[in-house]
Amino acid sequence: MSKKEKVKIVILTGPTGVGKTEFSLNLAREFNAEIVNADSMQIYRYMDIGTAKPTKEERALVPHHLIDIRNPDEDYDAAQFKSDAEAVINRLIEQQKLPLVVGGTMLYLKVLTHGIFPSPGPDKKLREKLRQIAAKKGIAYLHAYLQRIDPEAAVRIQPHDLVRIIRAIEVYELTGKPISWHQKRHQFQERPYDYLKICLYLPRDILYKRINMRVEKMFARGLIEEVERLLKMGYSPALKSMQAIGYRHVIGYLKGKYSLERAKELLKRDTRRYAKRQLTWWRQDKEVLWFEPTEQKRIRNAIRRWLAG
């Protein structure tokens, strides 16, 4: 299939707190688009405030897809996202709508635009064995094991990300090769779409101020009550979803590990660090077009030129 025959999609990404949600609504209405979520936390039901999920009012303005599609204790990974997103994009194209992919989960965007390496399916017995090891000896124990078998993957995977740690170990155990070896071999060379990748950015001091303010607003809107409700519903603090930024900080406060002010400080710090990692990732991506959120006219013109090309 030639590039001209490929389906066209627009990707709007950027660090957390930069203003993707508001900007995406304006773009979607102007370009007859619908929004395909590419945020790995916004897929979860009942987790609204801590994920900065678009409000019901915002979702009423423009149709959103792949939001609230899993319960907090259900597994979901990049391969599932790729499959789900492709199905949504195909439907939108049939309806003559422009797919507008919005989110900051780097791996989701990478597998959507460049494919994913062929890998073995999940081994439930092995995964349960590894979960039991983590429960007894701690996640750090598994991460240390991953460092020994696949140092490259261990650098990329956060020490608290149990799901990705288990998956990397699982691939090694089932294939005898590190997951990083498989990824290098594949090299993410697929190009299923013709896409325009827009990354919003702000000067670091302004972005960090926005992040700090957003954290305060989350607590004012009821983040603590949201986490308490999830715990009362029976969702374990050890779940991947409950260990995400924001949720693990509130859980620490509720368990008495630190004060409310300390929880806020840690959440602000970790969100700033996450934004920094996101920006580092995209700076290595030569396909990205960089814009400040105020450059709306330039962004619209870039999209128009690209769609006409």
Give an overview of the whole structure.
By secondary structure, the protein is an alpha/beta fold. The chain has two domains: about 5-115 and about 190-309, P-loop containing nucleotide triphosphate hydrolases (Rossmann fold, 3-Layer(aba) Sandwich); about 125-185, Histone, subunit A (Orthogonal Bundle), CATH 1.10.20.140. It has helices at about 20-30, 55-60, 80-95, 105-115, 125-135, 140-150, 150-155, 160-175, 180-185, 205-220, 225-230, 245-255, 260-285, 295-309; strands spanning about 5-15, 35, 65, 100, 195-200, 290. It has a six-stranded parallel β-sheet, sandwiched between helices. Helix 2 links the parallel strand 2 and strand 3. It is globular and about 55 Å long. The model has no long low-confidence stretch (mean pLDDT about 90).
Task: Quickly give the structural class.
Answer: alpha/beta
Order of helices and strands: EHEHEHEHHHHHHEHHHHEH
Major pleated sheet:
6 strands, parallel
Radius of gyration: 20 Å
Distance between the termini: 17 Å
In the CATH scheme, what's the topology name of the largest domain? Rossmann fold
Tally of individual domains: 2
Strand order of the largest sheet: 3-2-4-1-5-6
Output the number of helix runs. Answer: 14
Number of strands: 6
Percentage beta strand: 5-15%
What is the CATH architecture descriptor of the largest domain?
3-Layer(aba) Sandwich
Looking at the structure, what is the overall shape? globular
The CATH homologous superfamily name of the largest domain equals P-loop containing nucleotide triphosphate hydrolases
The residue fraction in helices comes out at: 40-55%
Q: Indicate the low-confidence ranges by residue numbers.
A: none
The CATH first-level class of the largest domain comes to Alpha Beta
Mean pLDDT: 92
